[in-house]
Amino acid sequence: MGQTFKQTAKAETPIGACSGLTLASYAVGRLAEVDGTAGGASDDIELTIPGSTTGIGLVFVGEPKVRTWATGTWKVRLNVPTGGENGFISWKALYVCRVSGTDIETMVSDAAVNTLLNSSGTFTETLSTTGSATSESYTSHLYWVYVFQNASGSEQTLTVRPSKNLLTPLADAEAPPVPGTHRRHIAVNRCAASSVANSEFARSMLESCGSQAWHFGYSMEEQYHAHSMNVTAQSIAASAARRAGLSNASVVGLNVGAASMVREILSAGSAVAGSAGGALAQRSHISSGARTA
């Protein structure tokens, strides 16, 4: 089951996002939160819709905190505690958008929901996406954009209550990336692995690097880069072991030294780490062109 957001009464700034439509003058925005508190009767929203108009009237905003955006089922709900006047108001269209700055993408949409809101109740729109998951910015937000239509020539009022669940196919929230750690962790892992003439230890460093790359939110490209650098470091360590015929005691001593180098690089900051990564790359004949997160 994917992340489920609860509509709340907390105010948010509405935008048209991926809909390509202009906000109506009466549009309101509300926050949608995982494990959020549903709005009650006192939080009802009255939308006064001008006659013969169609526009964005309601937008919910959520923050998934994920990098991998999976495909699957989206369920979008609308709670109407009282019916619209004279049955003229309809839920015309729906857009679910991913927004990260100027990067805007339509996740799912239906430009022809066309559900008449002339009675009270919960109205549900179920949409699905297929295909492969994509890697997106961790800071991306979700926008649920509701479009309403008033078929009457006169002003009508629609009451909605922000209280229902919004189901997504997105996995649970992930730990946030730490700015500037990407180059630093690659440098640390390469430094430790290539400083130890022991292939088993180098292999463990490779696994550690992969784990760190995932935890700190690096893209697949960045994870591959980190992986390739450690493979080379492992090869260097194995060759050194064969040439030197080091004893177990010597290997233990080198492990301790590597741990000390790791601490020094981390405490020195990203500038030193970047230099260390560059030096190690030159030593290993690999380009250290990975981006800083």
Description of the molecule:
The longest helix has 25 residues, at 220-244. This protein has helices spanning 181-194, 199-215, 220-244, 248-268, 270-284; strands at residues 4-12, 23-34, 45-49, 53-62, 68-69, 73-80, 89-100, 103-110, 115-116, 121-128, 134-135, 141-150, 156-160, 165-167. Helices cover 31% and strands 33% of the residues. Helix 1 runs parallel beside helix 3 (220-244). Mean pLDDT is 75; it is low at 181-188, 190-198, 209-234 and 249-293. It has 293 residues and is of the alpha+beta class. The protein has two domains: 4-167, Sandwich (Jelly Rolls); 181-284, no CATH class. The two termini are 29 Å apart. Strands 1, 2, 4, 7, 8, 9, 12 and 14 form an eight-stranded mixed beta sheet that branches. A two-stranded antiparallel ribbon has the order 3-13. Strands 5-11 form a two-stranded antiparallel ribbon.
